[in-house]
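Final report, closing paragraph on structural work. Over the funding period we assembled a curated collection of sequence-structure pairs, and we close with a single example.
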Amino acid sequence: MFKYKFLSLTFLFISSFAFAQNREIPIDTIVTTNHTTTIKGVKVAYQAQTGTQPVWNKEGKAIATLYYTYYKRTDLKANPSRPLIFSFNGGPGSASVWMHLAYTGPKILNIDSEGYPVQPYGYKSNPNSILDVADIVFINPVNTGYSRIIENDGKKEDGKTFFGINEDIAYLAEWLNTFVSRKQRWESPKYLIGESYGGTRVMGLSAALQERQWMYINGVIMVSPADYKVIRVGGPVSSALNLPYYAAAAWYHKKLDPKLQQQDLTEMLPEVEDFTINELIPALAKGGFISPNEKNEIISKISLYSGLSEKSILQNNLDVPTAFFWKDLLRDEGKTIGRLDSRYLGIDRKDAGTRPDYSAELTSWLHSFTPAINHYIQKELKFKTDIKYNMFGPVRPWNNDNDNTREDLRRAMAENPYMKVLFQSGYYDGATTYFNAKYTMWQVDPSGKMKDRFYFEGYRSGHMMYLRNEDLIKANEDIRTFIKNTAANEKPAKY
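Its predicted structure, as stored:
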């Protein structure tokens, strides 16, 4: 009898062990939960649908599955005019966790009013969520969140199918078509919101959805957008556009000359912007052939607006790299400043050097977001899996060829008189700077015929400007206003 029990236990152990080796995500599944919250003082009932939906190849076979969460308000009568917002983060290779659990969704992190982690980790209701005015779907591209490439007939699709600017746009557009059909949302006004690289993604998707899926978009929201037409190209324009951000960060840390420091941030910045466009870009364009007098004048003004020494600026040939700025601004205090949000401070091994040892802001964010999203999905949304939630997933190499997304957005706007665009940027974002976002906005439509359909809003925080509570309130309200301003109200789409 004892021998039989021992064998049975051994079999159970081996079976459990064998089962545990097959860690797979379900290809096509939904978990539905119902909730209530209070938004802007009003009780709101909503349903959360979270799960996976396949990506199909041309033969109709599943080659990947994307993890998503869809929030739908349930205490209103069915209304075909209720907006639907598709939300993407960036990277490329970043999950949708950031805006999901800190910006527009019904729950937000337990953080302090400026965005710093607090313990115990967790989440709370978001009284500023836009769920009162629009339904939202948070989408994780391949290898982010729980989204994965899957086996098909014993083989896995090559990553090249997904990992590239145009590849990413193509499969996501197809996936959205399936989603809208499944959820019966073809009648809804539709919006795209993308943060960081997500800005590149939604610029491209705006045209892909209209031209390949015949799905027309009312609005595109660019949150701290990355425009690689500037960032990767380099040169005088790319370099000069950093200066207004340098001024903002230096102002925050009280490193500017008193006559600038005593001004409010938004009172001071137009002066720097004017200098950048009208003096700095032409000066940098002259390179080593700039006259000595002009060179000295430009160095003096860069120093005035950046808080850096004239010596440092001269040693960098007037072209101060962002990494050097993050290292040098507070070097005398033994601190570095954050890349994505320069309000955050770091401590390096040594004060010497040309760049910080680590990103102070990103480590802070991973500190608070990672435990919260893992707990939230399993406890609140009831989605159970042993698959690792990829905050950042493996998507390299990424194909950056043929980036025409800026032109894609222009063309989509021209084709669709309804479409408008909102830019949202934090003044202290040193990765995708607010002035770079303004420049992108100016460059989308060279004709200027559609400039009245662009909106820009700046916030006193960084890349994820919604982490600061005051900006969370304002930024969500700005989206509400944008949705109101883009409502068609049965007006014909014509020029």
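Residues 438 and 456 are 7 Å apart (CA to CA). Residues 1-20 have pLDDT under 50 and may be disordered. We thank the funder for supporting this effort.
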